[in-house]
């Protein structure tokens, strides 16, 4: 009788130990999977979502701003070129000498 009781107690302890082992393995697996999910979540929050927001919302505005800047830069270069052309023309014509030759000079 005592032998059966001891055997049943040992079997019970063995069953509890197996159940604990299964639970511990499940907890470790869940912790590992949870860690991977947290890692992916933070990568998404720190890198993927800001990139998507940039591409969807900011990039069109930045492209327009860049095009406007290039357009203004081209216009400034045209104005600079025109100014240099006018100065060259002025130097070539030399209005002071022309006025002297025409008798309009102060001498």
Number of helices: 2
Instruction: List the secondary-structure elements in sequence, H or E.
Output: HH
Q: Give the CA-based shape.
A: rod-shaped
Helix percentage range: over 70%
- Structural class based on helices, strands and sheet pairing: mainly alpha
Largest sheet: none
- Tell me the domain tally: 1
Q: Poorly predicted ranges (pLDDT <50, ≥5 residues)? A: none
> What is the tally of beta strands?
0
Rg (CA only): 44 Å
Strand content: under 5%
The span between the termini is 146 Å
- Average pLDDT value? 88
Task: Kindly describe this structure.
This protein has 107 residues and is mainly alpha-helical. It has one domain (2-102). It is 93% helix and 0% strand. The protein has two helices and no strands. The chain has helices at residues 2-93, 95-102. The longest helix has 92 residues, at 2-93. It is rod-shaped.
Give keywords.
about 110 residues; mainly alpha
